[in-house]
Amino acid sequence: MGLFKTRRLSKTYGHGDNRVVALKAADIALPKTGFIGIEGESGSGKSTLLNLLARFEKPSGGVIGFKGKNLAKMNSSQELGYRQHSVGLVFQHYNLLEDKTLLDNIAFPLVLSGVSPKEARAKARNLANGILNENLLDKKPSECSGGEKQRAALLRALIIEPEAIFADEPTGALDEDNAIKVMELLKEASTKRLIVVVSHNHGLLSKYAERILNIASGMVSGGKEKTDPGPLAKGHGSSWWIGEGMREAKRSGRRLLSCFAACLIGFSSLLCSAAFFLGYKPCLHEERIRSLDAGVATVSYERSVSTDDSLLSLVVQERPSFDSVYGALSSLSSFSIENDYSFLLPSSVEFRLSGEAGEAELVPVASLNSKYAQALLNEGSLPNDDLASCLVNEAFVDKYGSDSLGRSLLIQAGGNYTGEGWEKDIDLELSMLIEGVVDEFAFLNSPRIYYSYSAFEEFAASLVMYGGKEKGVTLQELCKNALPTSFYSNYQYRVFVNEEQDLQPFFEILHSYSEEDAPLAFTSRAFLSYTSFADLSSALSSCLTLFLGIELLFVGSVIVLSVLSLFASSRKTMAIMMALGAKKVPVIGCFAIPNFLMIGVAAILSVPLAIGLIKGLNFGFQSFFGLHSLLRLGSGGIYSLIWVALGSVVLIFFLVSFVSLALAFRKLNLSKEMRDE
Ligand code: ADP
After folding, report:
1. Any bridge partners for residue 448, and if so which?
2. Which residue minimizes the CA distance to atom 26 of ligand 1?
3. What is the pairing mode between strands 472-474 and 29-31?
4. 130, 294, 534, 610: which has the fewest C-beta neighbours closer than 10 Å?
5. What CA–CA distance (Å, rounded) separates 559 from 294?
6. Predicted confidence (pLDDT) per residue in 104-125, tens digit
7. What is the per-residue pLDDT across 439-463, written as a single tens digit (0 to 9) for each?
8. Is any atom of ligand 1 closer than 6 Å to the C-beta of 397?
9. Is any ligand 1 atom within 6 A of the Cβ of residue 40?
10. Average pLDDT, the chain
């Protein structure tokens, strides 16, 4: 009964002009025991035959029968069993695992098939007795001679007590003494199993082989044998690969460290950009309405009037009806509509501060001691709601001195005002004490003085004008009753929103009235900056998306490249493990785990690093980037978002790197790797 029988077995490599027929319709029968030699010129097809029998390659045609079963029909677990129990392999260049001792190399196939490392080592030591010196067993292959290495490789093939050993030029790299030692060992082993040896050395082959197959240009000539069927042994798993993974981590320490550094930098910068990406919107949103005049607007009514037969039309500004203004704002919870006295107090005023002249915007707010003013107060205290006190912003302090708080401002305004039946010089000399400094969004801000409009209303009510008949009329009454187009109507109202939560709906109302032909025209400085921030925000959004995409690509490439470089540096070791019967997944695992572990650790550490970076950046760009707000706003929401973002990014990278490793692994050609030196 034979062990192998092939029928019209052939192997072709390449296509078209590059097509090489390495083996042609070989009919071979190999016995269960005995020493079979294979001879032939270089390139005649000897290794091809061996690779087909070892299942490193698949035949292009024909059948290989192993104990009566078609080798091609084995499923993956049967194939694993075939490698782990049925065949042993010996190569010209030994193919030992370089970081293991000779003893561990010999024991390794047993470990792969589930035997405990301790037991496997004991068996290996036993087997090596008399063949390899005891003190050699603890040495690494690089410390041993070729003969010693080849004997260890032979013991590695023998330890699983295989049914066949395939040896490809086992003496090719040895001197004669060592070659004879190896041949003797093979000869001895052939009493219990089939030994197939490919060799150039005709003298040695004819001395030891019982039968020699000759191959010339892929054609085999030699004897035939019968075969008999039998079950294939099954492999079972073990956790050998955990130890291999740790050894791999030690072996590639430097490479892992650089992968770690790259991932740490990559992930934390990714995180910073993601945090910025997630945080800039709420920041801008918060910042763009962060000033005391956010809830102030003037309202007028504009209409076009065409002049006779002319293509030109004039825009006429009139005071709108009180009801229409009230109606427009009715959805707000708290607001007030006042007469506009802007003709008395201009928006830009000159003042004197301890004798020094200055100029600032004069901004009315509904009342100085509102909750909103309190929220923005940075220094000082909220004043009584009268015209004798005011608040200033930080830009004011920057320009007119850090000791502005507590100093008096002298504002002079007014002029000669005439009306129907009266004429009056109004000399407004206001002395205001700076009571507090408000912290508002400083971007593009100029010095500002905030005063109470309700106090100003009272002042206007006290100004009495006398007509020709000496009948008095207050300025307030005058403005209220003025004709819509008269100077004193000033064409408009002032609107004040009193609650912070009304600001957003207020801007929405302003937005809905921003069309050219809207029935009311609202003018609000804060709304203008609000809309320009919306533009800035969408521009920033596109830039950040692009930036984030590029960064993702960059970090992804670094990780994939590091995984592939790991594959490239360990493909030979992987191939040896596979050839000895290791399962694919643990092999990938033991090389990938240290790398993946590094990626994971770098990902976790990048979170505190990124938060530190964001906090650090906070010093320089606080007002513009508002990263402080990101952290402040974030106490919960943003952090969990950061974790979710990081988690999904890391998951993507794990998947990408695992897939790239698996793809690279698919292309691993065992026969080529085992032959390459
Ligand atoms: P031998 O072992 O007798 O020296 P081989 O079996 O290695 O010869 O090769 C037989 C022929 O097949 C040679 O012409 C060789 O170039 C070709 N060959 C072997 N392996 C490959 C391969 N992976 N791809 C293409 N051609 C190959």
Report:
1. 361
2. 13
3. unpaired
4. 130
5. 48
6. 999 999 998 888 889 999 999 9
7. 887 566 789 999 999 998 888 888 8
8. no
9. yes
10. 83
**Count, residues in the chain:** 677
Ligand 1, atom 2: closest residue by C-alpha: 47
Residues 6+ apart with CB under 8 A from 536: 284
Q: Residue 31's Cα: distance from chain center in Å?
A: 59
Name the token pair of 195.
């030994």
How far away, in angstroms, is 200 Cα from ligand 1 center?
15
Cα(378)–Cα(396) distance, rounded to whole angstroms? 13
**Burial (CB count <10 Å: 0-12, 13-18, 19+), residue 442:** middle
Nearest CA to ligand 1 atom 25: 13
Find the 176 Cα to ligand 1 centroid distance in Å: 27
Instruction: Read off the pLDDT of residues 521-565 as tens digits, 9 standing for 90 and up.
Output: 998 888 888 787 778 778 888 888 888 888 888 888 887 887 788
pTM over 0.85: no
Per-residue tokens: 383: 């004043």
| Residue 128: burial class (beta carbons within 10 Å; 0-12, 13-18, 19+) | buried
Q: Is the CB of 46 under 6 A from ligand 1?
A: yes
| HEC string for 33-77 | CEEEEEEECCCCCHHHHHHHHCCCCCCCEEEEEECCEEHHHCCHH
